[in-house]
Amino acid sequence: MFLQSDDTETLWEKNRQYLWNPFTQMKTYLDDEPLIIQRGEGVRLVDIHGNSYYDGYASVWLNVHGHNHPRLNEAIREQLDQIAHSTLLGAANVPAILLAERLVSITPPSLRKVFYSDSGAEAVEIALKMAFLYWKRKGRPEKNTFLCMGNAYHGDTVGAVSVGGMDLFHAAYDKLLFPTLRTPYPHPYRFDGTEQECLDSCLEKLRRHLDESGDTIAALILEPMMQGAAGMIRMPAGFLKKTEELCRQHDVLLIADEVATGFGRTGAMFACDHEGVQPDLMALGKKLTGGYLPVAATLTSDAIYEAFYGDYEEMKTFFHGHSYTGNQLGCAVALANLDLYEETDLLSHVDRLSRAILSEWEPMRQRRHVGDIRQLGLMIGIELVKDRKTRESFAWADAVGVKVCRRARDLGLLTRPLGNVITLMPPLAVSQEDLTAMIAILDQAIREVTE
Ligand SMILES: *Cc1c(COP(=O)(O)O)cnc(C)c1O
Asked: Which NCBIfam families does this chain map to (predicted)?
């Protein structure tokens, strides 16, 4: 459908009347100029007025090979000519089976079974329910709580918020959430001491939790190597491996939430691969379909699968499922997405590019209000601070992050802030030229807004 230019006003009016956007203050949004996307071309998004923008957030951390990719479009069309959807409850379908095999083959060797859902939050909920029931089935029902990390983000459903660590959400929903134990995620920039001291201190706290409460903890859930929504916080090398070892020693399952980090975002196929970590459960979503359709997955070890395996009357069945679980269109495009990873040798591209841009941060590093630039692969956060020396933060009400991203939009790049952290999460297949242009836009926006 092509929109005539005189339709755009009407469309904006209908947005105002009928649509409630997620994670959006509607008052601010509706007071601003509309941003209504009509189409995508590679790493660019084009709005209904014909303005073109870099997709600097990969449509919020999803897009991989660019928009409107002929191969991915074709995979959906081909599948559509067969069937769009049939149920996975007590039945199966061709692409869901083939994709499960593919996922098992590329994830760490501990992971042997794939359970589908439709969003990252659901993939997390499923991992939590599986871990909880696993210990019950093992005759250890007292292992029924979760250890989670400070500032963690695992999605917006009630269970996922419960194991999250963002006070903003916890304060809002307090009584609705189930209680958990929380241990700090190492954040060297905000730690008073060296990176090594930060790592040691966080490990010590983790060890204490496990020593004191390991008998009541079903699982530890974390975002491996890099916390996303917390503000792109990069874990010091070695912490993840040590965490895995401590979990094993204390009979605590390890749940890796790779919804943001998975599929090459950090340079390795999965962030766990950086340290050869083999979790018991892994949540995947976001880039699984190349940013095309909502498919998510929870991968599990054989041991967990077997705790649910038995004769019908034993009632060991995992009573959980969603209507669109294993959707054929989504699984078909996910398979084509993974084919493209291989054909374009995408991980090498991400690795090369992430090194190539290291020197490009130099001008930005000198800016008066740039406190820290954190990068792993093509997962990037730029923390703005009021005072570089003291690392004093800007106040929430200053909305500095919001203003920088708004200015970047005028300059032709879309992204969203995480508080005072500006994120850059380009589609992984971005060219060096386009990535350099994106960094230049962010630098200009930061300068204009903060200096
Ligand atoms: C985005 C995200 C989720 C939630 O995924 P949805 O598909 O938005 O529900 C969970 N965990 C992490 C680490 C994420 O970044």
From this structure: bioA (TIGR00508)
